[in-house]
Amino acid sequence: MPSDTGDCPAPRRPARPHCTCNPMPDAPGARDMPTRSRTLDTTTPALTLVCVIWAIFALELLFPFLGLRRLGIHPRSIFGLVGILFAPLLHAGLFHIAANTVPLFVMLVLLQIQNSRRSMQTLAQIWLLSGLGTWLIGRSGSVHIGASGLIYGLLSYLIAAGFYERNWRSIAIGAVVLFSYGGLLWRIVPSYWFVSWEAHLCGAVSGVLVASWLRRK
User: Fold this and answer.
1) Measured between alpha carbons, how far is 37 from 35 in angstroms, rounded to an integer?
2) Which residues contact 174 (CB under 8 A, 6 or more apart)?
3) For residues 132 and 180, is the Cβ–Cβ distance under 8 A?
4) How does pLDDT run across 96-126, given as a tens digit for each residue?
């Protein structure tokens, strides 16, 4: 007779549902975000400075009575020292500012690519040295305005940095600048009376000095 106490099979547990979790696809453009971020980091300083220069130019056109151009560099005058800070932001007319905009933007972007960690330091040193040099050697009774001194400083710095630093990035950037804008260097000598060759010369010398000084650090 079968025993009443025989073992009964335990009820089977329901199988756990098996889940397969697939990673969600990247959002459109997600992989491009690092590239976009690098592009913004490279171009933002250049765009900012160019926009400030154009904003000041527009302000001068709208409110000429402000006399902003008086804030240029007056050689060897105490008041003219203020121009060391403000002269690169001021321009005499539409042709003047238009001629400076593209090379200034290009030079600033290349400066950021060449060494983003010290680009602002380099820009500040060239800005001050070129302005001080113009204040020292500029023609008496003249007022020097415009970003051309800064442009020549960046131009000579990028070329000299390729020579001093001897890395492929600096050499390539220096070669591009020399090939594209080297023709500007002839304007470091006196030419037209309305051209500030003093600012061009002091900018070019400042760029070489800064490149040499940074190499030793």
Assistant:
1) 5
2) 158, 159, 160, 161, 162, 163
3) no
4) 999 999 999 999 999 999 988 899 999 999 9
List the structure tokens of 35. Answer: 């590239």
Is a pLDDT exceeding 50 seen at residue 172? yes
pTM value is: 0.81
Domains in the chain: boundaries: 37-216
Are 127 and 88 in contact by the 8 Å Cβ rule? The answer is yes
**pLDDT at residue number 116:** 84
> In angstroms, rounded to a whole number, what is the distance separating the alpha carbons of residues 150 and 123?
8
Helix, strand or coil, per DSSP, at residue 132 = helix
- Give the pLDDT of residue 46: 95
C-alpha–C-alpha distance, residues 53 and 45, integer Å: 12
Please state which of the four CATH numbers 3.40.630.10, 1.20.1540.10, 2.60.40.350, 3.30.300.30 is assigned to the domain occupying 37-216.
1.20.1540.10
Identify the DSSP state of 93: S
Rg (the chain; Cα; Å)? 30
The beta-strand segments (E) located in 89-208 are none
> Which pair of structure tokens corresponds to residue 183?
């023709």
The model's pLDDT over 81-94, given as tens digits with 9 standing for 90+, comes to 999 999 999 999 99
Whether 161 contacts 114, CB under 8 Å: yes
Looking at residue 40, what is its pLDDT? Answer: 66
User: What is the Cα–Cα distance from 125 to 139, expressed in whole angstroms?
Assistant: 23
Residue 93 token pair:
């007319």
**Mean pLDDT throughout 207-214?**
94
